[in-house]
Amino acid sequence: MSDMPLTSSEPRPSLLCAELLHAWQLRLRIDPAQLDFASTAELVQEPFSWIGQQRAQEAAEFGLAMDPPDYHLFVLGEEGSGRTSLLRQAMQAEALRRPAAQDIAFVHNFAVPERPLAVRLPAGQGRSLRRRTEAMIDKLPEQLDKAVQQAQHRSQIEQLYNQARQAEEAAFGSLHDWAQSAGLRIRREEGQLVVDSQDSGPAASSQGQTDPADDGAAALAPAALPGSPAAADLDGAMPAPNDSAEADPALLLPMDEESLPHPGDDLDVEGADSAATPATAEDLEYQLRLQLAQFRGQVRQAQIARDAALNLFYQSLATPLWQAASAQVLDGLTPSAEHAATLQRWLSQMQAEWLKNMALWVPGSIAQDADALLDQTDSIEGEGESQDARDDARAMLEAKRKTLRALSQLNLIVDHHGEAHAPVVLEDQPSLRNLFGTIDPPEDDERRSDFSCIRAGSVLRADGGFLMLHLRDLLGDEASWQALRRVLRTRQLRIEDVHASQGPSSSGAMLPELLPLNFKLVLVGSEEAYYQLQESDPDMARRFRVKVDFAEQFKASTATYRATAALMAQRCKLYQMPHCDASAVARLLEQSHREADDQQRQSGRLNQLEALLLESTQRARQSSLQSGQERLVQAADVEAALAAQRLRHNAMEQDLHAAISEGEHVIAFAGSQVGQINGLSQIDTGDHRFGLPARITARTHAGQEGVMNIEREVAMSGPIHDKGVLILQGYLTALFGHLAPLALNASVVFEQEYSGVEGDSASCAELYALLSSLSGMPLRQSIAVTGALNQHGEVLPVGGLNEKIEGWFDLCAEQGLDGSHGVLIPARNQRHLMLAERVVQAVEAGQFHVYTAEHVGQGLALLTGHCDLPASAAHPAEEAQRLPLAVLQAAEATLLQYRLACQRADMARPRAQRASQRQLRKPAKRPPLD
After folding, report:
1. Which of 126, 212, 425, 867 has the maximal Cβ count within 10 Å?
2. Is 804 designated active site?
3. What is the pTM of this model?
């Protein structure tokens, strides 16, 4: 290719300069008259719809209706897009089409207490079963008492007691006969056996204690007084009703042998042969002890036989009562066959346990059992100590009764009573306990956890329906996340003690039955989290076959405007705030376009619009209070709320603008400069976005290194910015390829920028600065530039356009608008303009200008003032056909000078050094392959 400079011998077409936009093109204006309502009060009854989210709506409805497993939903989108509210609404709508879920209860497993039994019942029947079970336990003792009071049953009971008395009388007769043969006399006196000689009165007790007040008679230790003949032990000996000590003179011996005489006791029997030798007295004492022990055994056997017979008799009375009560408990309940069998087994186990412990539920038996256990101690201990022991025994037996009663209850952990449709559960605190339930420690620290300590979590409450979780709440709890993975994989849940990992647990090895699960999970997260899950945990990701993607923006239409207005109406009603007139709604809709940075699309972040609505209604309310007249929210209230929002958040913006206005940060607002231009940047603090100009300068000189990005050299630029600079370098190489290799060293820098640079929106400005430096053509400083660049010189759209323009405008306004100020933006960004009214008014007045360019040549012509095009044959590079001729000629002339300078410098070096340099430039030879 020729390296000769361009000639201007041929005619040149005029350059299409940058387009100047009119004021009406700078923002979308919505006519309130076209909204077809006067105020939002007319729209209160309209439902909250999927505003512009048809794709997400179809996906959600499909996923919620799918019954097969692993069709859970992952909802992704920006926070504030209404994703949670809309999915909850969709879940509730689908739940109405499904039947109510089953109640879930746990009952005690009397056979294996560590394995509680799970029972499922149709909705509402769990509460009925619990109530019936409690009533059965309350009524059965009363029914048994009534049965006992019947004449024929009392007669049988009395007969059993009479048989026991007869056996006791026979045993006492044998003891009495032996005593007479031994020269002794035994009689019963005030509940005690008294032994004396046949020739004297009472002398000694059976405890071997001599009463000096008597004339030597020995009193035998008391056998436990019959008191009530109903004395019974814990094993089930039953009392005879309405008996007393007076009605039953039979002797009852103590349970132990401590009250009987033992060898070595000082047992004196008054009236015995005084001539008897010590050996004879010892033999008599020994024989007496044997006879008393034999008597005690005979009486005890009689009591055991009586109690066993009574126990069988009471069981024969209670069994039909239990069977009838059990049938009544289950009457009308409609569990599945599996759970009906579980209930039958549970009631059978409960019946066997209660019949085995008849003494714990026959009326009055606890007090009588305690008396029977402790009557024997009355003569050994003091009266007070004996009463305390008796009270302790009664308390012990009462505790056993309460325990048995508690074990016979129903622990209803999921109750859907009164519900007619499937459950919808939203869990905002998805801890291990809240999600999957737990086994709580008992209130009494001395006992272990049992079935009554089982608690359900959200997963069980949502079984048969829908559960919504937010992914961000789960990611901080690894245990909950792993448990959720396991539940979704197995579709089963075993409730465990969540405290077990923190130390010894009172639940021991208790393992409730596994519960099958059938619920639909709706997991809400961000787009980044969704794709991260796909990559890091594909097994979990495949459980979510339905992707519900909420768009960040959506195309505006009459339908979306009305739906958005209906949302405003519902919020005004919900918060009891004044409604909006049509002008306020129109202004709010315009702000929705501003949030989307698009005249054709609305923002999907409805929470920001809702916040602005509430702040506007508050201003209208305050105005109404001051004037004493209620009024609707108007457009002026929305404008005031926007201004207040900006004032609350723009402290940094004001500080940076002040630094520029005061000259601390150097920006030129007028005149022309070579190699210098004002670029536009956007700063996002999270709660506020604003624009700020940046001075971009370029310097060029002869060399071989090409374009150097100073920010990149000091690691203060991001990858996107670096990419933009490399694209710029590629465009320059193509533009001046006929002069290749280029002998150029160039540096580009953002002046006074110390916090880093990212993005490619300054690529056009950097190119203009470089071409200005090469050509020596000055650039207008009153026009700021933004726009990205491709390798063909086309200007590409950028983000943050409105904030960038408004930031530059505000600074120019502080300097004083003189009609020369403006901005140059990509033509493809025109639809994204939603500028503030102050900018639009200045443009309308001719004080400020907004230009658009499709190609860098249009911008270069505007900034340099040269609008002539080269002839197509005058320049070999296609990229040069849309650039100003004067700029190209000057730039090429400079590049030729750089080449000559490099050639002269190269020739001035010694020949050996030049050869070495050429050798270094040769490509390295590839080593031979092995």
Report:
1. 126
2. yes
3. 0.77
